[in-house]
Specification:
mainly beta, 2 helices, nine-stranded mixed beta sheet, 210 residues
Length: 210
């Protein structure tokens, strides 16, 4: 059983719903500025010859993807400030799009790649880059930008196709001032990938760290 879900009801330009953990907010500045190296927060990001797919602030809220510990097809949530040291997971988030009357689940749908339960996720630093499928062992480092008086680490996440035809794209934004994750979820549908994305609205998952 998972602790949260991102749901998309797809029927033309249908509504978007999300299960919120705590509270709700939107980024204060829609046009973030790049951050100079001297001002940067201690971010946890994939890097090195064997990058681990984990993003967050050092000692604060973080999110991760398979192949870190846990089932494939779920977003991991880490909260070491709650006395749960990494790699202990405090919550899992399932992506559960609904197309017509058919609801799919990212941790239960069979992967087109190997036929086993759990869809593969991949990441990129931009929406343009995430469209093309990538190996899960090459996670994007994300982009650090200035949002108002805070910093934000952002990256895009995409999945293998769901059994109901959904192809969601998720933008993850981790903010240093709120230790929160802001998620915009989009369903690419079966055909028109790029054209369907501007029609989507944002949803937020917010978890306070102090």
């Amino acid at each position: 059983m998972t602790g949260g879900s991102i749901r998309r009801r797809a029927a033309g330009t249908a509504s978007l719903a999300a299960l919120l953990v705590v509270g709700c907010h939107r980024p204060a500045d829609p046009s973030p500025e790049p951050v100079s190296p001297a001002e940067r927060v201690a971010w946890v990001r994939p890097g090195g010859p064997n990058p681990e797919p984990v993003w967050g602030t050092k000692g604060g809220l973080a999110v991760g993807l398979w192949p870190t510990g846990g089932p494939r097809g779920l977003i991991r949530v880490y909260a070491p400030y709650l006395g749960q040291p990494f790699p202990r997971v405090v919550n899992f988030i399932s992506i559960e799009p609904v197309v017509g009357r058919v609801r799919a689940q990212s941790e239960l749908d069979a992967s087109p790649g190997d036929g086993r339960p759990g869809l593969t996720f991949w990441t990129a630093d931009s929406l343009t880059e995430v469209i093309a499928p990538k190996a899960p062992n090459g996670p994007a480092p994300g982009v650090v930008k200035r949002v108002g008086d805070a910093e934000a680490l952002t990256f895009f996440l995409a999945t293998e196709p769901f059994r109901n035809g959904a192809r969601p794209v998720i933008e993850v934004v981790l903010r240093s001032d709120r230790a929160s994750t802001t998620i915009s979820a989009g369903n690419a549908g079966r055909r028109r990938f790029a054209h369907s994305l501007p029609e989507l609205g944002p949803a937020t998952l917010h978890s306070q760290s102090d």
